[in-house]
Write a structure and sequence with these properties.
Arc Repressor Mutant, subunit A; 2 strands; globular
C-alpha cells in the first residue's frame, strides 16, 4: 500500500490525533473504501518511524468511533456497515477539527469572537455564493 499517511511531530498535535484525522479524511473523501485494509500497526509504525503504541491508540479510537473494525489475526479494515453515514460523520469530524484549529489560531492572533464570526460569514459567502444564487 502506498504511503497514505504522514505525521509531523513538530506541529503540536499529538501523532495519534494526526493519524485519526487522516484516516477519517481518507474515508470521507473515498480514498479508503469500505472493507479496505489499513496497514498493520507494526508496518505503519515502521513507515512513519513512530512508536507502534501510537498507531495502536489511533486504531483503537477509530474503532471506538465506528470508522474501522479490527479482526484479530486479520487486521484492521474500513467498516463496511453504513459507510456513507460514517464517511459523512468522518468528514464533519475533520471539518470540526480544522475549524477549531482556525479559531484557536485566529484567537492567538488577537481576533475576538465577533471578528471571527465576521470572518466565518465571509468565508461561507465566498465558498457558497453560487449555491445561494441558485438554490436547488
Amino acid at each position: 500500500m502506498p504511503a497514505l499517511f504522514t505525521v509531523d511531530p513538530r506541529n503540536g498535535v499529538p501523532l495519534y490525533l494526526q493519524l485519526i484525522e487522516q484516516v477519517k479524511r481518507a474515508v470521507a473523501l473515498g480514498t479508503l473504501d469500505a472493507g479496505e485494509q489499513l496497514p498493520t500497526v507494526k508496518a505503519l509504525a515502521v513507515d512513519l518511524t513512530i512508536n507502534p503504541n501510537t498507531v495502536a491508540r489511533a486504531y483503537r479510537e477509530l474503532e471506538r468511533d465506528g470508522i474501522i473494525e479490527t479482526s484479530p489475526g486479520r487486521g484492521s479494515f474500513v467498516r463496511s456497515g453504513g459507510v456513507a453515514r460514517d464517511a459523512q460523520r468522518a468528514g464533519v469530524d475533520v471539518a470540526e477539527g480544522v475549524l477549531s484549529e482556525a479559531v484557536r489560531e485566529s484567537r492567538a492572533l488577537g481576533v475576538d469572537a465577533p471578528g471571527q464570526r465576521t470572518l466565518f460569514e465571509r468565508a461561507i459567502a465566498r465558498w457558497f455564493a453560487s449555491e445561494e444564487r441558485h438554490p436547488t
